[in-house]
Amino acid sequence: MFLPHMDETDQEIIRLLHDNGRMSYAKIGEQLNLSRVAIQKRVDAMLENGIIENFTVRLNSTKLGKYISAFFEVEVEPRFVEQAGNLLSEEPEVISIYQMTGPSTLHMHALLKDEDALEHFLFKKIYVLEGIVNVNTHMVIKRFKQGTGLEL
């Protein structure tokens, strides 16, 4: 797939970094027959232009003591959506939160230690917020795929 604001070399750099975010610019350069400096300039330009937002690492939540992965559909009175979204986004358990269309105003993913932590999160951090109408909770049983971002 060719994107108009990126040439094939940029796209290949992203593919390589997507597969191995720790790959050095020198190693990428070897594979693409370019210098380390040329790769660095291209990556810097993609960062500056917002094509690459950041570099991250994916952690295994269960090995870090977070055994419950749950998704929440949080229905909020319209006038409190912004406030509730901002407050919930500050909670360390929250991995992602989005405002959605339809009756469920906020869609949120959180990682929690256990059932007690889930109960505490629901009743002490969500339901206490002004404007919360309803919360549907869905616990993950099995993960088939977890994305790391847009693939080219």
UniProtKB/TrEMBL annotation:
One GO biological process term is:
response to amino acid
What's a Gene Ontology MF term here? sequence-specific DNA binding
Q: Does the keyword DNA-binding apply?
A: yes
The coiled-coil segments of this chain are: none
Q: Which InterPro entries match?
A: ArsR-like_HTH (IPR011991), AsnC-type_HTH_dom (IPR000485), Dimeric_a/b-barrel (IPR011008), Tscrpt_reg_AsnC-like (IPR019888), Tscrpt_reg_AsnC/Lrp_C (IPR019887), WH-like_DNA-bd_sf (IPR036388), WH_DNA-bd_sf (IPR036390)
Question: HTH asnC-type domain: which residues?
Answer: 6-67
Keyword annotations of the record: DNA-binding, Transcription, Transcription regulation
Q: Name one GO cellular component term.
A: cytosol
Q: What is this protein called?
A: Lrp/AsnC family transcriptional regulator
Organism listed in the record: Paenibacillus soyae
Lineage from the top down? Bacteria, Bacillati, Bacillota, Bacilli, Bacillales
